[in-house]
Each structure stands twice: as C-alpha cells, then as structure tokens.
Amino acid sequence: MTVWGHIPYGGAMIPPPRDVSATLEVYVSAPTELEMQIAVAKLPGLTVTEELAVTVDGRSLWPEEIVGEHGSRIHRLRVESGLVVIDYSAHIETPAYPIPVLTTDHSIYLRPSRYAECDKFFGFVAGQFDIDESPGVLIAQVADFVAQRLSYIPGASDPIDGAADTLLAGAGVCRDYAHLAVALLRALNIPARLVAVYAPGCDPMDFHAVAEAIIDGEWVAIDATGLAPRQTLVRISTGRDAADTAFLDNHRGLINLNYYKVTAFVDGDLPIDTGAERIRLG
C-alpha cells in the first residue's frame, strides 16, 4: 500500500509540519447540547500534539468525545446557560495515512443527501458532460465546471442552500462549491463526499470544505475554489455533506455564535497546486 508522506504521491512528498487552531465563543441562553467538530481527525499514521480547552463562564469543563467514521471527532457538551469559549490547537508533525476505499463507500456516497441532492442532476449531467468518459476525466471536468460556473462571494448563499440552489445562484462559499461538485459527481455515478479541513494558505482564512471522489480505487481531493493547496489540507471531519461535518451544532435550547477565529500555517513555503495532480488526504 502506498503511504502518503513517505513515498511520493501526486507529485507531493510528506507535507511539512502544520499548526492549526480554532477559537469559538458561543452564548447559550437556554439549555442546550453543543457539538463541535474542530479537532483533527483521529486516523492511523497521524503524529499530532493538540490541546482542547472549554470554559463556561470561566469554569473549565471537559466535553465528551465521540469518534465517528473516518476519524471524525465530535466533542459534545451539555450547557444550561452562559458564555462558552472553546480553544483548540494542534501541531501536526506527520499526516495520517490516506483513507482506504471501503466496499460500502460505493453505495453510501452515490446516494442523494441533504445538501448534495444528486437526484436533481441526472438529466443535467447527461447534457453537460460526456458520461462515457472515464472517472478521472469527468472529475477534472466537474472541477472546471464548478470553478467557472460559480463566483466565490461570502454571504451570497444561505446556510440551508443545497447544490441545486447554488447552481441557480451562481455564487457561494467553499461548502457550496463542494456540495455542487459532490452532487454532480454522484449524478455521474462517481462516489463523492465532503471533507471539512484546516487549509494553510486559505484566503480568507476560515474552516474550509473540499470534495473527495473515488478514482481508480482511491479517494482523491477536489477543490474547485482553488483557495488553498490540497497538499497541506488537514482533515477534520468527513461525511455525505455539511450536515455531517458542521463545525458547530446544537440540539434544543438557544445559542448565538458571537465570534470564531481559525488559523492554519505550514512550516515553510506553501506548495504550488496546479489542480492537475491526484492528491490524497490523510
């Protein structure tokens, strides 16, 4: 098995060390259950030093950690009321090994989902793409289509917009780009999913979202925004779409996200991502 980070893959050697962090301030005005997905995914091969601190009105609490599929980590906390401050930082020395393709992936990631409603695109892709082309060619065409069709405009989309809304609007942010790419790929019978990441070099700096699709038995990263080099992305969570990967969620109660800040740096110069290479994420 080829291990990214020790053997050249997609033109890239092991990424240099990376430092990432996230700070969230959330005001809770009615009892709720908070869930955060901001920690680096826990996967084989990863060498990481990290810290997580959570306070409620200055009082330290330790949330429950739930490790899900593909190493996604949910930190869950029940709060009655008050100001919740979450601070997370991590130093990634070496990346995790690329996630292998499972037999179930060919079923789960072809299905329509909340924000990637691929069943609305079957007729569209038949008229837009040559469905007889190989997956490798189609994935490149989808990435080019999304990049050319959409304009990156913060605030242009609504949090409940799906891929069809994004196509009609012609604008959005990274999650909208990823949702449209995922929906189109699934409609072309190529399994695809969304990955939330830390992205060194991303401008504007924020939590970032990219698509992953299966090519020749491997999960390959696709980022039609071109905002950050894929070689240095750090996986946070993986799922069907943003419903599975949101950095903050709550059940019951009432909350307000007062403030958040994300940082992601690489030790040394950022690599150049031409978009033509097959890049696998750890």
State the low-pLDDT regions, or none: 1-12
Cα-atom radius of gyration? 19 Å
Output the number of helix runs.
6
* Helical fraction: 10-25%
Largest sheet: 5 strands, antiparallel
**Would you report the number of β strands?**
15
Predict the CATH topology of the largest domain: C8orf32 fold
Write a structural description.
The protein has 282 residues and is of the alpha+beta class. Mean pLDDT is 93; it is low at 1-12. β8, α4 (163-169) and β9 (171-172) form a beta-alpha-beta unit. α3 runs antiparallel to α5 (174-187) and α4 (163-169) packs across α5. The protein has a five-stranded antiparallel sheet, with no helix packed on it. Strands 5-6-2-14 form a four-stranded antiparallel sheet, with no helix packed on it. It has a four-stranded antiparallel sheet with strand order 12-11-10-13. The chain is globular. The protein is built from six helices and 15 strands. The protein folds into two domains: 18-96 and 253-261, Immunoglobulin-like (Sandwich); 105-245, C8orf32 fold (Roll). It comes from Gordonia rhizosphera NBRC 16068. This is Transglutaminase-like domain-containing protein. Residues 166-226 form the Transglutaminase-like domain. InterPro entries: Papain-like_cys_pep_sf, Transglutaminase-like. It holds the Pfam family Transglut_core.
